[in-house]
Amino acid sequence: MLILGIESSCDETGVAIYDEDKGIVADVLHSQVNIHAKYGGVVPELASRDHIRRTVPLVREALAIAGIEGDELDAIAYTAGPGLIGALLVGASMARSLAFAWNCPAVPVHHMEGHLLAPMLEDPAPDFPFIALLVSGGHTQLIKVEGVGLYELLGESLDDAVGEAFDKTAKILGLGYPGGPALAALATKGVAGVHKFPRPMTNRPGLDFSFSGLKTFAANTIRSCDDLNDQAKADIAYAFEEAVCETLAIKCRRAIKETGYKTLVVAGGVSANIQIRKRLTEVLAEFNGEVFYPRPEFCTDNGAMIAYAGYLRFKAGETSGLEIKARPRWPLTELNAAGLM
Ligand code: KG4
Ligand code: ZN
User: Tell me: the pLDDT tens digits for 115-137?
Assistant: First the structure.
């Protein structure tokens, strides 16, 4: 069984092919970083226009890498949401049209389900049930996962997502877009103990998060800094990252105690962060548990996770009709168990 996956929810066009027997056999990506960098963030209209330019060439490239023709595909999966509506519509209409032309079904995929299931492309893969920590530019969620589509929200950010906090703090520090990786790189040069940032919402019960205060704390720290030289910036980046790591660690520890599950899956763009990986690996070791991450290139947006989530949904008998499905807002918990659409 061969499934093509198309991702276009934000600023990356990703196309991949999943082979039921061999796994991912093609995975190509075009990042729009250069287009948006000069604006300091994603410009939705420019994102949509670039997806239009990139999708068909990437599909051709993926087919060539896999050594197959389009009409050999069993289904075409595409990101139907959540994301930027214009960007989603490009991928969705291309996927639906290609499926029509090649006479195969189209499978709409939830972007965050793609992220959540991406660690299952690795070896070893996690077994259900597990706790998922989804940390991306738009989401910070702790989810109890019992199977594909069996998701119970344990907690989420009440304001900024972790990735958003990374990006905004990076911007205040004068780092380029995308800020997360730039801030993480700068933090490696920071000195421990110079600043102590708060660990938001950890002194009250529950599994919700709040990250917008960290950005404000960073702004205030910068303001009170007499000489904002490179070392001073690195120290702030270090303290910010440390606060994020510690906050996530505290909440994950709570989620493990609450559910009794000892498997943690961490996914989404921010799961590429090395310090977060390190800290959460330590937390799971406290419980003799195990933590699973996608390989770094499958942490941020990619076509492989969409092809794989689409494969699981298609195998369970799910396809859509001729409709082009795109939902900018789409809570993960609205999904049904695979096969019960
Ligand atoms: O999953 P993703 O590619 O797109 C969304 O679905 O949002 O996540 C992008 C987010 C951005 O906020 C980016 O700054 C952040 O992930 N990110 C990182 C790192 N790599 C990407 N944040 C911290 N450290 C990193 N190494
Ligand atoms: Zn994403």
Answer: 999 999 999 999 999 999 999 99
Sequence-separated (6 or more) residues with CB below 8 Å from residue 313: 77, 107, 109, 148, 338, 341
The Cα–Cα gap between 307 and 216 comes to 39
- pTM, two decimal places: 0.96
- Ligand 2 centre to CA of 136 (Å) is 6
pLDDT tens, position by position, for the chain (341 residues)?
999 999 999 999 999 999 999 999 999 999 999 999 999 999 999 999 999 999 999 999 999 999 999 999 999 999 999 999 999 999 999 999 999 999 999 999 999 999 999 999 999 999 999 999 999 999 999 999 999 999 999 999 999 999 999 999 999 999 988 899 999 999 999 999 999 999 999 999 999 999 999 999 999 999 999 999 999 999 999 999 999 999 999 999 999 999 999 999 999 999 999 999 999 999 999 999 999 999 999 999 999 999 999 999 999 999 899 999 999 999 999 999 987 66
Give the distance (Å) from ligand 2 centre to CA of residue 82: 9
Domains of the chain, earliest start first: 2-116+298-334 (3.30.420.40), 128-293 (3.30.420.40)
**Whose CA is closest to atom 16 on ligand 1?**
269
Dist. CA 163 → ligand 1 center (Å): 5
- Rounded Cα–Cα distance for residues 151 and 142 (Å): 10
Residue 116 Cβ contacting ligand 1 at under 6 Å: no
184 lines ligand 1 (CB under 6 A): yes
The CA–CA distances, whole Å, from 291 to 85, 119, 297, 317 equal 33, 10, 18, 30
Atom of ligand 1 nearest to the CA of 274: 26
Ligand with minimal distance to 12 CA = 1
Q: Which of 300, 301, 332 to mutate to test the pocket of ligand 1 (most atoms within 8 A of CB)?
A: 300
Question: DSSP assignment of 289-312, as one string?
Answer: -EEE---GGGTSS-HHHHHHHHHH
Q: Which atom of ligand 1 is nearest to the CA of 268?
A: 1
The amino acid at 315: K
